[in-house]
């Protein structure tokens, strides 16, 4: 490695995208501390740990100058185009932010080049590249929707539906449990501390059940957007599978709160098609949640989502925009 002297200029390097494998083990470090920033430089096993700090300078040391907070010289910073004062990670409050300081070779966030001097938010697990030196950044992110109260309105298929203890147990509670399961997966995907969903209120008025929940912000967001659109598109097959008169699902494999026809050739095909549609929906939801994670990781989370989506799909309750 060439000897660095004072004032060594930054070496220009080509702007080539980095496509590394996503490391899974280092994120566990952030679960141990609430105020630690972990940088995992690609190609190196030992991570860089930074405790606290409102302003963290990234760069390379040059004799006679103030050393940056994180000196990337040991990682071939000069040959990889890292400037002496390349970029800064800022944490004014709870969130981390990234700013390029007008570096020679630029700063990239998830392979998108940053405009110098502008500030960009960083998410847990993001890929940062300074010149051609890349690293993943990990930290304990704020909890998702832990305190936020939000409402969702559900309309029963059956016009004579009443909020009896039986319907509360067999229809409404499975739906709430499915939402709680989805929120749990969202927390896992975002590396969040686990939160408990709290039922703040349940009302039934004008044939609409309204739930007020705390701690389910992301699950409710996915339910109102992705799931509602999907449910509308797959309505005909779901209606046939759940609303054929004269038969109530009652074996151990049935979905709580769902009505379904007896098995025959046509319903078997529809059930298989619905299963595939649920898997595609789960894939889309996970891609929305963690677009930068590896395909294998996303697949694992999608598989966990499917059972909860299946409960919601076959429920007698449908999300509605009607006000209670």
Describe the protein's architecture and organization:
This protein has 324 residues and is α+β, with helices and mostly antiparallel strands. It has five helices and 15 strands. It has helices spanning 165-189, 217-233, 235-243, 265-289, 295-313, and strands at residues 36-41, 48-51, 55-59, 70-71, 87-90, 97-100, 107-109, 112-113, 119-121, 127-130, 133-138, 149-156, 198-205, 208-214, 317-320. Strands 2-1-11-10-7-8 form a six-stranded antiparallel β-sheet, with no helix packed on it. Strands 4-3-5-6-9 form a five-stranded mixed β-sheet, with no helix packed on it. It has a four-stranded antiparallel β-sheet with strand order 13-14-12-15. Helix 1 crosses helix 2 (217-233), helix 1 runs antiparallel to helix 5 (295-313) and helix 4 (265-289) packs across helix 5 (295-313). The protein is elongated and about 80 Å long.
Q: Secondary structure elements and their pairing?
A:
Elements (H helix, E strand, L loop, with lengths): L35 E6 L6 E4 L3 E5 L10 E2 L15 E4 L6 E4 L6 E3 L2 E2 L5 E3 L5 E4 L2 E6 L10 E8 L8 H25 L8 E8 L2 E7 L2 H17 L1 H9 L21 H25 L5 H19 L3 E4 L4
Parallel strand pairs: 3-4
Antiparallel strand pairs: 1-2, 1-11, 3-5, 5-6, 6-9, 7-8, 7-10, 10-11, 12-14, 12-15, 13-14
Helix pairs in contact: 1-2, 1-5, 3-4, 4-5
Q: How is this structure best summarized?
A:
The chain has 324 residues and is of the alpha+beta class.
């Amino acid at each position: 490695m060439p000897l660095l002297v004072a004032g060594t200029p930054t070496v220009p390097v080509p702007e080539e995208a980095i496509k590394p494998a996503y490391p899974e083990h280092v994120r566990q470090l952030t679960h141990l501390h609430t105020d630690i920033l972990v940088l995992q430089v690609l190609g190196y096993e030992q991570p860089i740990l930074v405790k606290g700090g409102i302003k963290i300078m990234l760069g390379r040391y040059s004799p006679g100058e103030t050393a940056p907070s994180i000196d990337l010289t040991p990682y071939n910073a000069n040959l990889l185009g890292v400037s002496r004062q390349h970029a800064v990670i800022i944490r004014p409050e709870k969130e981390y932010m990234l700013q390029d300081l007008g570096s020679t070779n630029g700063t990239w966030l998830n392979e998108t080049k940053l405009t110098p001097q502008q500030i960009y938010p960083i998410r847990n697990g993001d890929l940062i590249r300074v010149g051609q030196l890349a690293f993943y950044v990990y930290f304990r992110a704020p909890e998702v929707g832990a305190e936020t109260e939000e409402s969702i309105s559900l309309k029963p298929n059956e016009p004579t539906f009443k909020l009896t203890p039986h319907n509360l147990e067999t229809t409404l509670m499975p739906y709430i449990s499915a939402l709680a399961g989805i929120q749990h997966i969202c927390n896992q995907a975002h590396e969040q501390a686990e939160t408990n969903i709290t039922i703040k209120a349940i009302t039934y008025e004008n044939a609409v059940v309204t739930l007020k929940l705390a701690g389910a912000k992301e699950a409710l967001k996915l339910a109102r957007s992705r799931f509602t659109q999907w449910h509308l598109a797959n309505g005909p097959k779901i209606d046939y599978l759940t609303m054929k008169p004269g038969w109530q699902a009652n074996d151990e494999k049935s979905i709580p709160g769902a009505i379904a026809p007896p098995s025959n050739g046509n319903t078997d095909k529809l059930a298989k098609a619905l299963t595939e549609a649920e898997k595609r929906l789960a894939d889309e939801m996970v891609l929305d949640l963690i677009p930068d994670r590896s395909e294998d990781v996303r697949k694992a989370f999608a598989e966990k989502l499917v059972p909860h989506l299946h409960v919601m799909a076959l429920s007698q309750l449908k999300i509605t925009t009607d006000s209670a």
